[in-house]
Structures are given as C-alpha cells and as structure tokens.
Amino acid sequence: MYLTKLKKTVLLLTILISSGCSLIPKPPTPIPVEIRTVEVKIPIVHPNMPRAIDLKEPYWYVVSDKNLDTFLADMEKQNGTVVFLAMTVDDYELMAYNMQELRRYINQLKEVVVYYRTMNTDEPEVIESEKPDN
To answer: Which of 61, 45, 66, 16 is nearest to 113 (CA)?
Structure first.
C-alpha cells in the first residue's frame, strides 16, 4: 500500500515536472529599446544692453593773438570771469585718437554681446547702429 502510494506520487511528480514548463505561460517578448541622441539647447540668460551714451558737445573757441582781446571781452560779458584750458595741437590729436579707441572698443564689445545673445537663437539680432533708417 505504501509502495503503491509512493509509485503514484513519483509518477505524478514526474508528470508535473516534465510538463510543468508548458503550464506556465511564456513571458511576453521584450520591447526593443531605441537609443537616440537629442541635442538640447541650454537657455542662456542674456544681460541687458547698457543704456546708450548721451554725450553733450562742448563748444570750442579758437583763440589766437589776433582775437585775444575781443575774446576776453566777450567771455567777461557772458561769464563774468575768464578761465583758460589750453592744449597743444599734438595733445588734441592724442585726445582724438583716444576717442577713436573708445569708439572701437565699444563697437567690439557690442559685437561680443550680440554674439552671445544669438548663440542659442536662429534669428540674428540687429545692433541699433546697424538698423536701417526709416
């Protein structure tokens, strides 16, 4: 009796073990993974353009030994006192050269700012000095 039960149990276990894999459903086929490289533009914080320079034009008086007396009389009438600021022609040329250097530096600095502003945009930015007159 014990032996028949043991035979039945062994037979049943053998059947279950051999057909056990067929009772479990197959796992679904895995979804293929697609690897893509996407370029992402990083937004850059743009600094504000500085306020435009508002320069005032001084009036230059040309005084020589021929018009010195009339110039002194006119200045005393207009201002009450006369003060002179003098420079040589070479110093005046040097001052003009320095102003040209400042203008060049400011224009190049503008170009650098515009470059960084247009670095992550597709449309070019127009500098105020390059805008067409309407």
So the answer is: 45
pLDDT-derived band of residue 105, with 50, 70 and 90 as boundaries? very high
Q: What is the pLDDT of residues 13-64, one digit of tens each?
A: 887 777 665 666 777 888 899 999 998 877 777 777 777 777 778 788 888 8
What pTM does this model have? 0.44
Q: If 0-12 CB within 10 Å is exposed, 13-18 middle and 19+ buried, where does residue 99 land?
A: exposed
Cα gap 39→14, rounded to integer Å: 59
What does the DSSP assignment read for the chain? -HHHHHHHHHHHHHHHHHHHHHHSPPPPPPPPP-------PPP-PPPPPPPPP-PPPPPPP---TTTHHHHHHHHHHHHSS-------HHHHHHHHHHHHHHHHHHHHHHHHHHHHHSTT-SSPPPPGGGSPP-
In angstroms, the CA 127 to CA 108 distance is 12
